[in-house]
Amino acid sequence: MKKVRKLEKAKRILVVCGQENCVSPEQQDQMSEFFHAFNSALAVDYMSNVECEGMFNPSVCMDTRFISDKKFNELLPDIVISYGGMIFSGLKTMLLRNHGKFEHWLIQPDGMVCDPFKSLTTIFACKPDYFFDFFVENTIEETVNDRKYYQEIMSYAQTVKDYDFPWSNVYAIKNMVTRIPSGSLLHLSINSSIRITNFFTLNPDISVYANIGTHGIDGCLPSFLGQSVANVDTPSYLIIGDLSFFYGMNALRSRHIGNNVRILLLNNRGGEEFYYNGMWRNAASDLHTTARHSTKAEGWAKECGFTYLSACDKKSYDEAIGQFMGSDSKNPMLFEVFTEMSTDAQAIYDFYDASRPRDLVSEAKRKGKELVKNTVGKEKVLKVAQTLGISLK
Ligand SMILES: Cc1ncc(C[n+]2csc(CCOP(=O)(O)OP(=O)(O)O)c2C)c(N)n1
């Protein structure tokens, strides 16, 4: 009961929902009630498969490349409550960077220690539905969320702008995911697909999966195809990068694949992830890290009985997307979209820059300078600056 009293007094409670394949409607109701009762906000991404009151999507606004340390400090919770599997968003890193400044209560049915934020103070060895029910049922007075913390977060989250993306894998994902009908299954494979899908608003009641738990690009395509066979009456969508696709392409030959299958293949000629995360350094990185290639899936997809569509710019994409999202195809479909990984990564950075509140731009510039210094080396940067007569202060 001490914990209930503590939660009643807490001003800033952040519930972090990890990846869960199936969250019962009862649990979602309990989470809404929890939100009504305590001064809380709930961080939810699509892989959490939760739709309840008090939730916000941290994917853009809490990304390490978007939020400043100063702003995150202003929004820092007193208590983090977490449950479930993988937490994909940068919120995990931001909490880790601020470890020790908050309590972390972990809901973990088997009682195993899991300390992603290095701030673990309590483990609740129970299921999440029991936890939320227990806390709501055992409040003494009628406690009510004053919503100050929630509103602070929401007003920040709402600064993220609707952005006019250039031709890129972001454009392709946006215009597909926002059309997926309710009741569908969506599988994301893995980093860029998850990150970018979470930028946009999906229709309600879409089950979202990813085998990000293993962090492997192998196995995504076969996992999805297995799911689609087990759910043959459910429209089933996969968003997959080229390296991940070519890893598992053998599975495309399975004889059981139904016409409920739609695969959006983002062929940006390699691993965009390494441009996005700053690992790309020079031409050798394309050989050894991003695995740049010029392979296409067309021949194999057709060979395996798929209806094949492709696009290389906005016009060809806009012409094909209607057919791809249609439900009357006799065959499974594969839509291969050709973009360039370096400009795909840049499109995301430009979106962050355009959306970031103004006072944070200088902070981002500072981080950029730091990154250049750390990557190129301080001495070289100073030398170039001297030659050009630029002061770095
Ligand atoms: C089995 C395995 N090998 C290597 C990696 C490292 N890795 C992480 S992301 C990535 C690139 C994925 O490229 P792609 O599937 O084309 O998606 P993109 O990043 O371009 O969206 C790689 C190779 C991994 N996660 N798993």
From TrEMBL:
Checking InterPro entries in the record gives: THDP-binding
Write down the Gene3D superfamilies for this protein, in alphabetical order. Answer: 3.40.50.970, TPP-binding domain
Q: Name one GO molecular function term.
A: magnesium ion binding
Its name, as the record gives it, is 2-succinyl-5-enolpyruvyl-6-hydroxy-3-cyclohexene-1-carboxylic-acid synthase
What organism does the UniProt record list as the source?
Bifidobacterium pseudolongum subsp. globosum
Q: Lineage of the native species?
A: Bacteria, Bacillati, Actinomycetota, Actinomycetes, Bifidobacteriales
